[in-house]
Design goal:
The structure is a single chain. This protein has 502 residues and is α/β, with parallel strands linked by helices. It folds into 2 domains: 6-269 and 473-489, Aldehyde Dehydrogenase, Chain A, domain 1 (3-Layer(aba) Sandwich); 273-450, Aldehyde Dehydrogenase, Chain A, domain 2 (3-Layer(aba) Sandwich). The chain is built from 17 helices and 20 strands. It has helices at 6-11, 53-68, 77-93, 95-106, 110-113, 120-131, 171-185, 199-211, 225-233, 247-258, 282-294, 315-327, 347-362, 397-400, 416-424, 439-448, 481-485, and strands spanning 19-21, 24-26, 33-37, 44-49, 141-142, 150-158, 161-165, 188-192, 218-220, 240-244, 263-267, 273-276, 307-311, 366-369, 387-390, 407-413, 431-435, 453-456, 474-475, 488-496. The strands form 5 sheets. Strands 14-15-16-13-12-17-18 form a 7-stranded mixed sheet, with helices on both faces. It has a 6-stranded mixed sheet with strand order 9-8-7-10-11-19, sandwiched between helices. Helix 2 runs parallel beside helix 9 (225-233), helix 4 (95-106) packs antiparallel against helix 8 and helix 6 (120-131) packs parallel to helix 7. The protein is globular. Bound molecules: NADP nicotinamide-adenine-dinucleotide phosphate (NAP) and magnesium ion. Residues 165-170, 192-196, 224-226, 229-230, 233, 244-246, 249, 252, 267-270, 302, 402, 404, 430, 474 line the site of NADP nicotinamide-adenine-dinucleotide phosphate (NAP).
Length: 502
């Protein structure tokens, strides 16, 4: 029997999708609709109306009004904290439903939907964490250079109307990473999710509405990046764009923002290195290395460590261990708890990954396992078997470009210096890891590698810890104090203390 995810649509009560503008659920006025195609089956399983430029304008105007004329930016800290905590509670109450809806969106195996970093529990904690910042947003008092003629202080004020654009691979977590700090800072928001993961985002918007977020403070516009997204990022009423997605679209966002000097933060892609030294348990390091790119969303994660840099003495053993891990991959109905690995998001991504695999072989990589697609029931979905290339040179395309699929490149290194050089030989700088039992070496390597987040014998992301990229992996940080700062402007106030100040 062929796979089908459609029964889950009724079970989850998923209806066709609408935008949420100025406190109302509305049909897009573009007259166009988008059909959701599930990546595990390529079944058509839901529709939503596409928001036109006029709809985006109404959403930005509502957010503008709520910011400029509404009382939201001036809400009492006590009330804002209470509201964000209410959102947090509701997200936690609906964690299971949200994780299933996310699986209905993007095919993330349900066994991974409950993993903290991509779950509604993370989203709930992000709202709770940022609620805690509301009464701690603080300026400074500063001395003057000229004596006691002035008192100088700084005020922290919300940046204004925020356009948030998120991708499809972790919609629940990324919604919270952007919306929680923006609302905590007193900003208003217009969010555009990816057209490939809409239903879980609609559910989160309903939760914000249920929690009592005032009209116009949070708006949702549905539609493709090329139309709805463009209308949003080029809208003159937007003060700040916060974006998570590919480097290419990130560049376009910066360009659009430059036109009116809008504020920008960017969370982009990566080609993260995983440096494995000879003193570790090789079987476990191999399982981690391969699992990171083949379990869950099959390598479709920004921080998936897709380059395994392996010390020469353990290289063959590690490659063999990685092959064994690849063999443990299970595909199937993503709602089945025994399934470990999901499909690629769409046909275009599938073609792109297959193209990279062909290129890997053509450029001289040694294909050790995978490279093909599972057949039978799975042939209709966008699955690719976990793929390992050995003897990869770091200058090859598969070692330099983000593939966003289940493809691991194993690259041998001689010593620590060689490992660090290879790790840094990339335009990206999002994540990195080292596996070693030598603490001094771990710290030296952590300091030498240019990446925004670094794992020592393990890697994680938390709502209170800054996350973001060096180099072309992005601009700004999400999570923790730096995240709130990204939604604030600093105003300097000088107060004359004498009758004849300069
Ligand atoms: P993408 O193609 O860049 O799309 C991201 C978002 O931007 C989607 O909502 C997309 O809409 C929208 N978009 C596309 N073109 C636009 C335009 N001209 N104007 C405004 N919006 C536009 O990325 P993706 O393929 O969805 O996601 C994968 C990428 O995200 C990878 O590079 C990955 O590394 C990165 N990522 C980074 C992080 C991080 O935190 N650093 C986390 C997750 C993912 P549509 O999809 O509806 O067209
Ligand atoms: Mg895209």
């Amino acid at each position: 029997m062929a796979l089908s995810v459609l029964p889950h649509k009724d079970e989850l009560g998923i209806k066709d999708g609408q935008s949420f503008v100025d406190g109302e659920w509305v049909e897009g006025t573009s007259g166009e609709s988008w059909t959701h195609v599930h990546p595990a089956t390529n079944e058509e399983c839901g529709q939503f109306g596409v928001a036109s430029a006029a709809d985006v304008d109404r959403a930005v105007t509502a957010a503008r009004r709520a910011f400029d004329e509404g009382d939201w930016p001036r809400w009492k800290a006590k009330d804002r904290i209470k509201l964000l905590r209410r959102v947090s509670e509701l997200l936690a109450d609906h964690a299971d439903e949200l994780s299933r809806t996310q699986t209905f969106d993007n095919g993330l195996p349900i066994s991974f939907g409950s993993i903290y970093q991509v779950s509604a529990d993370f989203a709930a904690d992000a709202f709770d964490h940022h609620a805690g910042w509301v009464d701690k947003i603080a300026g400074e008092t500063l001395p003057t250079y000229t004596g006691s003629d002035f008192q100088i202080l700084t005020l922290k004020e919300p940046v204004g109307v925020v356009a948030a654009v998120i991708p499809w691979n972790a919609p629940v977590m990324l919604f919270a990473q952007k919306v929680a700090p923006a609302l905590a800072a007193g900003c208003t928001v217009v969010l555009k999710p990816s057209e490939y993961a809409t239903f879980s985002v609609i559910r989160m918007a309903q939760i914000l509405e249920e929690a009592g977020v005032p009209k116009g403070v949070f708006n949702l516009v549905l539609g493709p990046g090329s139309t709805t997204g463009e209308a949003l990022i080029t809208h003159p009423g937007v003060d700040k764009i916060t974006f998570t997605g590919s480097r290419l679209v990130g560049k376009r966002i910066m360009e659009a923002a430059a036109d009116r000097i809008a504020r920008v933060s960017l969370e982009l892609g990566g080609k993260s290195p995983n440096i494995i030294f000879e003193d570790v348990d090789v079987a476990s390091a191999a399982a981690t290395a391969m699992g990171m790119v083949s379990f869950g969303l099959s390598g479709q994660g920004c921080v998936c460590h897709t380059r395994a840099l392996v010390q020469e003495s353990i290289y063959d053993d590690l490659v063999n261990g990685a092959v064994a891990m690849a063999a443990a991959t299970t595909f199937g109905d993503p709602f089945d708890p025994a399934v470990t690995s999901g499909p690629l998001i769409n046909q275009r991504q599938l073609d792109k990954v297959v193209g990279y695999i062909e290129k890997g072989s053509a450029e001289g990589g040694r294909l050790v396992c995978g490279g093909d697609r599972p057949g039978g029931d799975l042939a209709a979905g966008n699955f690719v078997n976990p793929t390992l290339f050995a003897d990869v040179d770091n200058s090859m395309t598969i070692a330099q470009e983000e593939i966003f699929g289940p493809v691991l490149a194993a690259i041998p290194f001689r010593d620590e210096e060689d490992a660090v050089r290879l790790a840094n030989q990339t335009n990206y700088g999002l994540g990195a890891s080292v596996h070693t039992n030598d603490i001094r070496r771990a710290i030296r390597v952590a300091k030498a590698v240019r990446a925004g987040s670094f794992g020592v014998n393990g890697y994680t992301v938390m709502p209170n810890a800054p996350f973001g990229g060096f180099k072309e992996s992005g601009l700004g940080r999400e999570g923790g104090r730096q995240s709130i700062e990204g939604f604030l402007e600093t105003k300097t106030v000088t107060i004359a203390l004498t009758d004849s100040p300069i």
